[in-house]
Amino acid sequence: MINRRNVLLSTLSVGLTGLAAPAILTSRANAADALELNAPGVLTTAAEATFAPFGFLNKQGESDGIGYKTMEEIAKRLDLKYDPVVTKWESLLVGIIAGKFDISGSAMGINEERQKQVLFADAWVESGSRLFVHKDSEIKSPEGAMGKKVGAIVASIFIPVAEKLVGANGSVPVYQADVEGMQDVVNGNIDGVILDSVAAAYAITESKLPLRGMERLEQSYQLGWAANKSKPNLVKAVNEKHWEMVEDGTFAKICEPLIGFDPTPADPIRTVFG
After folding, report:
1. Residues 96 and 214 occupy one common structural domain
2. How far apart are CA 206 and CA 155, in angstroms?
3. β pairing state of 125-134 and 192-196
4. Same domain assignment for residues 110 and 145
5. Fewer CB atoms near the end CB (10 Å): N or C, the chain?
6. 238 and 114 in one domain?
7. Distance between CA 256 and CA 249 in Å, rounded?
8. Quick one: which of 101, 88, 91, 94 has its CA closest to 51?
9. Minimal CA–CA distance to 189: which of 197, 177, 180, 202?
10. What is the pLDDT of residues 62-115, one digit of tens each?
11. Cross-strand partners of 223
12. Which of 197, 147, 196 has the alpha carbon at shortest distance from 172?
């Protein structure tokens, strides 16, 4: 005999399940909208691919690096599809301001001028600018660069550092990527180049370049991800998931194979919400 009570409960259960599915989807859609994303459910980032170990193309031609992997994990924890768009460095900030991307996937130095233009997530890397020269160079200290030719990356915070070191009688050629400046030092075309200390140390070791860095950092700074000022909820969510990763050790596991340590700042620059 058919138990009508069981049939009724089973039918009711199926009906409720059918109602629950759209409700869950709607809830997820609303959550995505709350993050101010350009496309619902998709985290679109501006990924600079010539700034190893933060962002680069590996031997398989795939996007890789500390910034790429960290943002990929953040997207996963936010239940979002990760869409990194390879972007030239000089176009990155412009694209963020124009709203072309949700957030930068590349490390960017945090300073007052940039904070006026974009909304930075909490700083996630601490590094510094350093003068690198050929290992056989006569330059033994940063003071030895006075009157010399010292390169820097275009549209970077390294240009004024280089200008100060070389003085009025020196010159500061600019480059599109770190590797171009380092190669010009190796080839003897310039006397030195100002680079991010962490990035340059990685590149020199990885490529076995005949370069050495000065002992002194010219400036210490912190790096962060930049978003359009119209996306405070996204930045809050990125902050939350990033610090989760720091606490559970995921961030250290991403960084250590590439640079040998966790670069988390001891006293990070926090997001300045309006």
Report:
1. no
2. 25
3. antiparallel
4. no
5. N
6. yes
7. 11
8. 88
9. 180
10. 889 999 999 999 999 999 999 999 999 889 999 999 999 999 998 898 999 999
11. 109, 125
12. 147
Give me the CATH number covering residue 94: 3.40.190.10
What range does the domain containing 97 cover?
35-124+225-259
Quickly list DSSP for 3-25.
-HHHHHHHHHHHHHHHHHHHHHH
In this structure, the answer to whether residues 216 and 132 fall within a common structural domain is yes
Q: Which of 167-171, 186-190, 194-198, 258-262 has the lowest mean pLDDT?
A: 258-262
Give the tokens for residue 166.
Answer: 């070389």
Do 93 and 226 touch, CB atoms closer than 8 A?
Answer: yes
Same domain for 203 and 153, yes or no, is yes
Residue 27, classed as helix, strand or coil, is helix
Decide: pTM greater than 0.85. no
Locate 245 and state its tokens. 């990763």
Alpha carbons 25 and 19: distance in angstroms, whole number = 11
Phi-psi region of 85 (alpha: psi -120 to 50; beta: other; left: phi over 0): beta
Tokens found for residue 47: 């990924």
Tell me whether residue 99 is in a domain.
Answer: yes
CA distance 25 to 66: 32
What mean pLDDT is reported for the chain? 88
**Are 177 and 50 in contact, with CB atoms under 8 Å apart?**
yes
**Contacts for 82 with CB less than 8 Å, ≥ 6 apart:** 43, 45, 71, 72, 75, 76
Q: Give the chain's domain count.
A: 2
CA-nearest of 84, 81, 82, 116 to 97 is 116
Which tokens hold the place of 102?
A: 């949700």
Q: Where are the beta strands (DSSP E) in 154-191?
A: 174-175
* Dihedral sign, Cα of residue 177, residue 182, residue 187, residue 191: positive
The token pair at 89 is 């460095």
Query: 226 pairs with which residues across the strands?
Result: 120
